[in-house]
Amino acid sequence: MARKIVITSGKGGVGKTTVAANLGMCLSAMGERVILADADFGLNNIDVVCGVENLCPYDIVDAIEGRCRPRQALARHPQYPNLFVLASNHTDPQKYISPQAVRLILDQLAPRVDYILIDSPAGIEGGFHRAAAAADEALVVTTPHISSLRDADKVIGVLQSYRLKSIDLVINMVRGDLVVDGEILSPREISEVLKLPLIGIIPQEDGIFLGKEGKAPSKAFRVLAGNILRHTRKLCNVTHKYNGFFGSIRRSLKKSL
Ligand SMILES: Nc1ncnc2c1ncn2[C@@H]1O[C@H](COP(=O)(O)OP(=O)(O)OP(=O)(O)O)[C@@H](O)[C@H]1O
Ligand SMILES: [Mg+2]
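Above: query sequence and magnesium ion SMILES. Below: predicted holo structure tokens.
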């Protein structure tokens, strides 16, 4: 039976879809069978991000409304045969879909795979509840920026009202040079502020995406996937190359860019 994990955030654009897609690729490369479900009904894009938008004629709304069986709505990723993408509605983004309907479809698919990763829209509106209601674990994604932390705090408060087995923190777009210079909070400080256990640190990287161009996920995503798979807490060190004499040169160079 699949572990159903919602990937959520308070603020938009912090990297939920990026984390969900890379995590899906890593877990499937480790031999796990994964469904990447898009619960962002307004701006459905996980199928586009994964480059499978033309590979499946159906989406989750077709499954909900009985035009296809749930498994017929899955698009197999061409490079990751264990990875299946379940697109949100292609046709009518305004259509109301209930949390129960999404949950029912994911529950029907759960016996076929090991993981269902649910990409949530930002915020705590209807779309968030649709995604959270179908999950039994949550990853909250934030960046180190204050506005993102404040919104993450709100979403954590709401998530706590769901009976989830775990809520873990992924800090994305971390710049090691700024952590060393004390210009942003360190990942551990952020975890303490939000009172949430840290399960992943993802550095800010150029050209992070993605599957479509055949770029493999970076080490930070492989470490995160390993933590989820094995219930461990290994964390990437994003500051080591900015410490010491050469590190200070790297920091100055990065700042002057
Ligand atoms: N670690 C990173 N380093 C550099 N760029 C990143 C990183 N993570 C995400 N991005 C970029 O940030 C942008 C937003 O990412 P993404 O779409 O994954 O965010 P999101 O939280 O899903 O947004 P939304 O709330 O709109 O759904 C994308 O252009 C993505 O490529
Ligand atoms: Mg997104």
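Residues 3-256 form a domain with the Rossmann fold fold (CATH 3.40.50.300).
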